[in-house]
Protein backbone atom coordinates (compact mmCIF):
# COMPACT_ATOMS: atom_id res chain seq x y z
CA UNK A 1 0.00 0.00 0.00
CA UNK A 2 2.83 2.41 0.85
CA UNK A 3 4.45 1.70 -2.55
CA UNK A 4 1.21 2.67 -4.30
CA UNK A 5 0.99 5.93 -2.34
CA UNK A 6 4.63 6.76 -3.13
CA UNK A 7 4.22 5.91 -6.82
CA UNK A 8 1.05 7.96 -6.98
CA UNK A 9 2.82 10.93 -5.32
CA UNK A 10 5.72 10.66 -7.78
CA UNK A 11 3.31 10.48 -10.71
CA UNK A 12 1.43 13.59 -9.51
CA UNK A 13 4.72 15.47 -9.02
CA UNK A 14 5.93 14.54 -12.51
CA UNK A 15 2.62 15.54 -14.03
CA UNK A 16 2.81 18.91 -12.28
CA UNK A 17 6.36 19.43 -13.57
CA UNK A 18 5.20 18.60 -17.08
CA UNK A 19 2.38 21.14 -16.84
CA UNK A 20 4.81 23.78 -15.56
CA UNK A 21 7.15 23.08 -18.48
CA UNK A 22 4.27 23.38 -20.95
CA UNK A 23 3.11 26.63 -19.35
CA UNK A 24 6.66 27.97 -19.45
CA UNK A 25 7.07 27.06 -23.12
CA UNK A 26 3.69 28.62 -23.93
CA UNK A 27 4.61 31.83 -22.10
CA UNK A 28 8.01 32.01 -23.83
CA UNK A 29 6.37 31.50 -27.21
CA UNK A 30 3.76 34.16 -26.45
CA UNK A 31 6.49 36.57 -25.36
CA UNK A 32 8.43 35.94 -28.58
CA UNK A 33 5.31 36.65 -30.66
CA UNK A 34 4.54 39.76 -28.64
CA UNK A 35 8.13 40.99 -29.03
CA UNK A 36 7.77 40.73 -32.82
CA UNK A 37 4.52 42.72 -32.70
CA UNK A 38 6.15 45.36 -30.51
CA UNK A 39 9.01 45.62 -33.03
CA UNK A 40 6.44 46.30 -35.76
CA UNK A 41 4.75 48.93 -33.58
CA UNK A 42 8.12 50.56 -32.88
CA UNK A 43 8.93 50.72 -36.59
CA UNK A 44 5.56 52.36 -37.26
CA UNK A 45 6.12 54.90 -34.49
CA UNK A 46 9.59 55.83 -35.73
CA UNK A 47 8.65 55.74 -39.43
CA UNK A 48 8.79 52.89 -41.84
CA UNK A 49 8.32 52.23 -45.51
CA UNK A 50 6.29 49.52 -47.18
CA UNK A 51 9.35 47.35 -47.86
CA UNK A 52 10.58 47.43 -44.28
CA UNK A 53 7.05 46.91 -42.98
CA UNK A 54 6.67 43.83 -45.17
CA UNK A 55 10.00 42.45 -43.95
CA UNK A 56 8.91 42.91 -40.34
CA UNK A 57 5.71 40.97 -41.06
CA UNK A 58 7.64 38.15 -42.74
CA UNK A 59 10.01 38.08 -39.76
CA UNK A 60 7.13 38.01 -37.25
CA UNK A 61 5.01 35.33 -38.93
CA UNK A 62 6.94 32.25 -37.67
CA UNK A 63 6.79 33.47 -34.05
CA UNK A 64 3.07 34.24 -34.36
CA UNK A 65 2.33 30.88 -36.00
CA UNK A 66 4.42 29.01 -33.43
CA UNK A 67 2.54 30.57 -30.53
CA UNK A 68 -0.91 30.14 -32.08
CA UNK A 69 -0.09 26.47 -32.74
CA UNK A 70 0.66 25.97 -29.03
CA UNK A 71 -2.27 28.03 -27.74
CA UNK A 72 -5.00 28.53 -30.31
CA UNK A 73 -7.99 29.23 -28.10
CA UNK A 74 -7.01 31.72 -25.40
CA UNK A 75 -7.83 35.42 -25.26
CA UNK A 76 -4.09 36.13 -25.55
CA UNK A 77 -3.82 34.02 -28.70
CA UNK A 78 -6.81 35.83 -30.17
CA UNK A 79 -5.27 39.24 -29.40
CA UNK A 80 -1.94 38.26 -30.96
CA UNK A 81 -3.62 36.81 -34.05
CA UNK A 82 -5.90 39.82 -34.43
CA UNK A 83 -2.95 42.18 -34.16
CA UNK A 84 -0.97 40.34 -36.81
CA UNK A 85 -4.00 40.07 -39.11
CA UNK A 86 -4.51 43.82 -38.75
CA UNK A 87 -0.91 44.44 -39.74
CA UNK A 88 -1.33 42.20 -42.78
CA UNK A 89 -4.44 44.15 -43.76
CA UNK A 90 -2.57 47.46 -43.39
CA UNK A 91 0.27 46.07 -45.50
CA UNK A 92 -2.13 44.88 -48.22
CA UNK A 93 -3.84 48.29 -48.19
CA UNK A 94 -0.48 50.02 -48.49
CA UNK A 95 0.53 47.70 -51.33
CA UNK A 96 -2.43 49.04 -53.31
CA UNK A 97 -0.38 52.24 -53.80
CA UNK A 98 1.66 50.19 -56.23
CA UNK A 99 -1.19 48.55 -58.14
CA UNK A 100 -0.76 49.17 -61.84
CA UNK A 101 -2.98 48.59 -64.80
CA UNK A 102 -1.92 46.59 -67.80
CA UNK A 103 -2.27 49.70 -69.98
CA UNK A 104 0.24 51.81 -68.03
CA UNK A 105 -2.19 54.70 -68.34
CA UNK A 106 -2.24 57.01 -65.28
CA UNK A 107 -6.05 57.04 -65.09
CA UNK A 108 -6.17 53.26 -65.34
CA UNK A 109 -3.49 53.02 -62.65
CA UNK A 110 -5.65 55.07 -60.28
CA UNK A 111 -8.56 52.74 -61.05
CA UNK A 112 -6.29 49.76 -60.28
CA UNK A 113 -5.34 51.28 -56.91
CA UNK A 114 -8.99 51.96 -56.05
CA UNK A 115 -10.10 48.51 -57.17
CA UNK A 116 -7.34 46.96 -55.06
CA UNK A 117 -8.57 48.85 -51.98
CA UNK A 118 -12.24 48.16 -52.73
CA UNK A 119 -11.37 44.45 -52.79
CA UNK A 120 -9.98 44.79 -49.24
CA UNK A 121 -13.08 46.53 -47.86
CA UNK A 122 -14.95 43.34 -46.86
CA UNK A 123 -11.98 42.23 -44.76
CA UNK A 124 -11.61 45.70 -43.27
CA UNK A 125 -15.34 45.89 -42.43
CA UNK A 126 -15.18 42.44 -40.85
CA UNK A 127 -12.11 43.16 -38.74
CA UNK A 128 -12.91 46.75 -37.81
CA UNK A 129 -16.64 47.52 -38.14
CA UNK A 130 -16.22 50.99 -36.63
CA UNK A 131 -13.79 51.96 -39.39
CA UNK A 132 -16.30 50.55 -41.88
CA UNK A 133 -19.02 52.81 -40.48
CA UNK A 134 -16.76 55.85 -40.94
CA UNK A 135 -15.99 54.79 -44.51
CA UNK A 136 -19.69 54.38 -45.26
CA UNK A 137 -20.37 57.87 -43.90
CA UNK A 138 -17.69 59.42 -46.14
CA UNK A 139 -18.87 57.47 -49.18
CA UNK A 140 -22.52 58.34 -48.60
CA UNK A 141 -21.72 62.05 -48.17
CA UNK A 142 -19.65 62.08 -51.36
CA UNK A 143 -22.35 60.26 -53.33
CA UNK A 144 -24.94 62.81 -52.15
CA UNK A 145 -22.59 65.65 -53.10
CA UNK A 146 -21.94 64.18 -56.55
CA UNK A 147 -25.52 63.01 -57.05
CA UNK A 148 -24.38 59.58 -58.20
CA UNK A 149 -22.85 56.38 -56.84
CA UNK A 150 -19.09 56.18 -56.73
CA UNK A 151 -17.40 53.78 -59.11
CA UNK A 152 -15.01 52.84 -56.30
CA UNK A 153 -15.93 53.33 -52.65
CA UNK A 154 -12.32 54.04 -51.78
CA UNK A 155 -11.74 56.67 -54.48
CA UNK A 156 -12.50 59.56 -52.12
CA UNK A 157 -10.83 58.11 -49.04
CA UNK A 158 -7.44 59.14 -47.74
CA UNK A 159 -5.47 55.86 -47.94
CA UNK A 160 -2.98 56.99 -45.30
CA UNK A 161 -5.80 57.79 -42.88
CA UNK A 162 -7.14 54.25 -43.24
CA UNK A 163 -3.70 52.79 -42.52
CA UNK A 164 -3.33 55.07 -39.49
CA UNK A 165 -6.72 53.90 -38.19
CA UNK A 166 -5.73 50.25 -38.66
CA UNK A 167 -2.42 50.88 -36.91
CA UNK A 168 -4.28 52.47 -34.00
CA UNK A 169 -6.29 49.25 -33.71
CA UNK A 170 -3.20 47.03 -33.96
CA UNK A 171 -1.48 49.12 -31.31
CA UNK A 172 -4.47 48.67 -29.01
CA UNK A 173 -4.43 44.90 -29.67
CA UNK A 174 -0.71 44.75 -28.92
CA UNK A 175 -1.32 46.56 -25.63
CA UNK A 176 -4.13 44.13 -24.79
CA UNK A 177 -1.87 41.15 -25.56
CA UNK A 178 0.87 42.59 -23.35
CA UNK A 179 -1.53 43.05 -20.44
CA UNK A 180 -2.91 39.53 -20.87
CA UNK A 181 0.60 38.08 -20.87
CA UNK A 182 1.40 39.89 -17.62
CA UNK A 183 -1.60 38.32 -15.87
User: Segments where pLDDT lies below 50 for 5+ residues?
Assistant: 7-17
Total count of strands: 0
- What Rg, in angstroms, do the CA atoms define? 23 Å
Give a quick account of the main beta sheet: strands, pairing sense, barrel closure: none
Brief write-up:
This is Lipoprotein. By secondary structure, the protein is an all-alpha fold.
Describe, in plain words, how this protein is organized in 3D.
- This protein has one domain (about 1-180).
- It is about 85% helix and about 0% strand.
- The protein is built from 6 helices and no strands.
- The chain has helices at about 1-45, 50-70, 75-95, 105-125, 130-145, 160-180.
- The protein is elongated.
- The model is unreliable at about 5-15 (pLDDT under 50).
Topology of this protein?
Elements: H1 2-46, H2 50-70, H3 75-95, H4 106-127, H5 129-146, H6 159-182
Helix pairs in contact: 1-2, 1-3, 1-6, 2-3, 3-4, 3-6, 4-5
Amino acid sequence: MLKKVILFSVFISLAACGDNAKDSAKKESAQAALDKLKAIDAAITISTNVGNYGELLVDAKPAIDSYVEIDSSSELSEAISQTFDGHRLAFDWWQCDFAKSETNNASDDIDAENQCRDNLLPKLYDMYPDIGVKIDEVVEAKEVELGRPLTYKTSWLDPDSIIQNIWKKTGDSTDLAASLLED
